[in-house]
Amino acid sequence: MKKPWLELPLVWIGYLSTEIHRKECDLRKDRHSDQQREREVLLAGAKRHLEIAEKTCTQRRLIRTAPVLQRIWGNIRAANVDILALSSDEELRARSSIVRAMVEHHISQESPQRVQAERAIEAISTGQGKITEEDRETLISALRISYSSLDAKYRRVRVFANVLWAATGLSLLGAAALAIWGAFDAQTLSLCFENRDVPIENEGDATTQTVIVCPTGEHKPLPGMDFPDDYANRLDVFSVELAGLTGAALTTVSSLRKIHDDHNAPYTLPLAAATLKLPLGAISAFAGILFIRGGFLPGLSALDSPVQIIAWAIVFGASQQFVTHIIDRQAQVTLSDVQRTPEPAPPRRPNT
Length: 352
Hints:
3-stranded antiparallel beta sheet; elongated
């Protein structure tokens, strides 16, 4: 059973293979053409590109990675350019609108190649006679340049996605290191609070006592254990990080609607941006509770119960959204650049 992300490239491979067979039939009928050798070379090149793309798609245990996607679609686009070069004048006129759309989306408005391509497309689409070789070559080059620009945009998407996956891995290692550190040295990373004036009832009289509150439970002070750090549990840090991860997971719900499993959102960039929130939420929760314990947050000197600690950990875990929303926005901008016309290059200043 083929993976869903392979269906679209395989459809394109099938469509272009049919076009190649049709061109081969036309070539057999016109064996006396002066350009027969050139057409045979273009057909052989198109077939070779499709064979590479199809072979890549049919590999066993194929994983959707950036090099695989680039290899498949790069060869499909190269075959499409070769087939366009083999088109008759009538076919070239019919496909000029497709080339126009690619040029408008992927070549800068002030680029000389775009100006020349638009002139050639206008002449081809409105003309009735034979298409000149210059216009034909201009149209083919325009499609090739458009594909090159599209590949450059996809490379930017791939690099950004790789950076996010690397940041996710490092953040996950950091969160795991904190949890392991807390398990083997709980007192150093103690997240316990000391509440001195906790009311209790004692034979009808209201008195107070001191209670040590940790993420995993409450404790009454024992003789010889005078500091909150003495009651730290090896699961305290892990519990706070788990609560922070839960808070971060709540913020990823809004990001799920941006995840599309199609070719227009390659390299799982939205998924990479959403996954980064989870380990960052765990680290944010630990840092937030640590700041409260250190008195860095005004008005939050001590928490009264384990439930409060866990609740604040969830809040701090969700608060990573204030940072990661910038990443989400940049990810959407990077993806939208794939379909957006590039900005014209700034004019060069004359040398003085």
